Structures are given as C-alpha cells and as structure tokens.
C-alpha cells in the first residue's frame, strides 16, 4: 500500500511523452507510464474494475470485443451515421474518473482518491496508459445507456467503439446528431464535426474498417494490398521482398526482421478470416505463411 501511495504522490515521475504519427497525417501525443505504474494500472483493470459496469453498446476494450462486433449491428441498413468525440481521452477529467470508475457505493473516499490518482495524469485520462480504455467505457456508460435506449425505441442501431459512435437505420440525421451533441456537452465532451459522415445505401458503408452494405466484409483496398504482399513474398521470398521495399535489416529484434514480417502478415490474414471465415484464398495462404513462420523459427534456433 505504501508503494501505491508513493507512486501516486509523484505520478509525473512515472510518465514520459511519446509522439507517434497518425495514419491520416499529423501526430498524436501519448503519455506512457513506466513499468511499475503500467503494472499497477493493469492490475487495477484486472482486479478492481469489474466487467459488469460496461454498457452493452460499448464494443471496444472489453472481453470478446472487436471491430466486427461493432460493425455487425449496422449490416444492410438504410443509412449509417458516424460521429466522433473530439480529444476523447484528454476530455475525461480526474473528477469524471473519480465519480464513474470508482464510485462511493463501492469504495471509501481514500481508496477512490488513490485509485483515481494512479489512473490519471495532468488532471485527465492519459492516452497511452493501459487503464485508460477500460475506464473510458465506465465514464461513457450513462451516455451509452441513454442513447442506446433512445435508439432502440426508434428502431435505430447504436454502437460505440472508443470515440467512434455509429448509428444506422431510418432517422433524421440532424435531429439525431443534435441529440448526441447536447448530451455529450452536458457530460463535458464535444463532437469532432470534421469527422461526421453519413453513408447511404447506394454508397459504400464502412464501420470500423468493415463494409456493411450487404454482409460484413473487409474493405477491398485492404484485401488487395494484403494479396499483393503475399504474392511478392511468394515470388521473391520474404527477405528479398523486404529488400525491394527498402525496409530490410535490423536483426532478429527489428520489426523488419523476416520472421516478424511473416507474423505480421499472418495477423492480417487472421483478421480477414475473422470477418469472412470461409474465404478460400486466405485460408490457403494462412497455412502457407504459418509454415514460413515455423521455418524462420527453426532457422533462428539452429543459428543460436
């Protein structure tokens, strides 16, 4: 217990700032905890935060959650509305965490304060801490339950994957958006207007990377790129393919190491198959890449 208080009293010493590039340009700042604090936060998630608090409409950061779970309710609907919460984690304050993640009905004041201090940094929920995703679901539970109930009464499908909210069905987009905006404002959040998207039936409807017009399917661009990577690995070999791409080298601990690249491909294939388990091409290629991974592992053991 003394260790926990020592860490919480000097929380700033246990973080460092990491800047990573975003896929669509720009950068994102992460507040990354050190090993000690990271271990504490993981234990808080595992032993302190019970799964029962999470809303059924939250489809990320929970047991058996996935992008597919988030996308499936929206398959074959008339229209899809996608809304995004601006600066999601940084908008979740110390007080929000204190009230929602560690409520008085379960914890005495001193323990509530200690746990909140261990999970917050600079008066907000740090993006980069392992406890932040689970806590964000607890903070968003009132919104999820209210909007989920409101939508069900009107035969509208609603899911939330982190800061991405998806609504589908037959509804007035402006009315629904205003409803969401007003409730979020009361909680201390705001919409990222630039990320609002409406997708009609005659357009390609994509929810968390999955096309949902007729059946759940991974975007064709993703599949095409993956097919190309697999093809060139088969034609030139993994190491030669990496050299052709200009990303080879670095030894066994490098992310450009052939074994790691093969594992990376295997992960992407498994993702496609999780959405479409009957895809014959990727089922066949999964077996081929799996053999490659085993061969690389055998070579590395022999070389040692």
From TrEMBL:
Domain Reverse transcriptase: 1-212
Enzyme Commission number(s): 2.7.7.49
Keywords from the named record: Antiviral defense, Magnesium, Metal-binding, Nucleotidyltransferase, RNA-directed DNA polymerase, Transferase
Swiss-Prot/TrEMBL GO biological process terms: defense response to virus
PROSITE patterns, per the entry: RT_POL
Catalytic activity: DNA(n) + a 2'-deoxyribonucleoside 5'-triphosphate = DNA(n+1) + diphosphate
Domain of life of the organism encoding this protein: Bacteria
KW Ligase (keyword) present: no
Gene Ontology molecular function, alphabetical: metal ion binding; RNA binding; RNA-directed DNA polymerase activity
Top-level class of the enzyme under EC nomenclature: transferase
Keyword DNA-binding assigned: no
One Pfam family cited in the UniProt record for this chain: RVT_1
SUPFAM superfamilies: DNA/RNA polymerases
UniProt record similarity statement: Belongs to the bacterial reverse transcriptase family.
Protein name as it appears in the record: RNA-directed DNA polymerase
């Amino acid at each position: 217990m003394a260790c926990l208080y020592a860490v919480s009293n000097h929380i700033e010493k246990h973080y460092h700032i990491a800047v990573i590039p975003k896929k669509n340009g720009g950068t994102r700042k992460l507040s990354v905890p050190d090993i000690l604090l990271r271990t504490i936060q993981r234990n808080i998630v595992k032993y302190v935060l019970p799964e029962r608090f999470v809303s059924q409409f939250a489809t990320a950061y929970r047991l058996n959650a996935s992008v597919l779970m988030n996308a499936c309710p929206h398959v074959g609907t008339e229209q899809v509305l996608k809304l995004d919460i601006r600066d999601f984690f940084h908008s979740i304050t110390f007080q929000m965490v204190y009230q929602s993640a560690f409520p008085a009905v379960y914890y005495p004041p001193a323990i509530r304060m200690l746990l909140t201090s261990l999970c917050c940094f600079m008066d907000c929920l740090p993006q980069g801490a392992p406890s932040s995703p689970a806590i964000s679901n607890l903070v968003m539970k009132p919104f999820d339950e209210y909007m989920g109930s409101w939508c069900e009464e009107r035969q509208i499908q609603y899911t939330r994957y982190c800061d991405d909210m998806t609504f589908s069905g037959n509804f007035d987009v402006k009315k629904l958006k205003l409803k969401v905006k007003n409730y979020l404002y009361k909680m201390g959040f705001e919409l990222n207007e630039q990320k609002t998207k409406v997708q009609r039936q005659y357009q390609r409807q994509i929810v968390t990377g999955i096309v949902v017009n007729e059946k759940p399917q991974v975007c064709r661009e993703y599949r095409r790129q993956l097919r190309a990577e697999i093809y060139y690995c088969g034609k030139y070999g993994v190491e030669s393919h990496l050299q052709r791409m200009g990303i080879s080298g670095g030894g066994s601990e490098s992310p450009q190491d052939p074994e790691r690249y093969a594992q990376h491909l295997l992960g992407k294939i498994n993702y496609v198959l999780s959405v479409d388990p009957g895809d014959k091409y990727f089922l066949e290629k999964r077996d081929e890449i799996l053999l490659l991974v085993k061969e690389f592992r055998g070579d590395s053991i022999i070389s040692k």
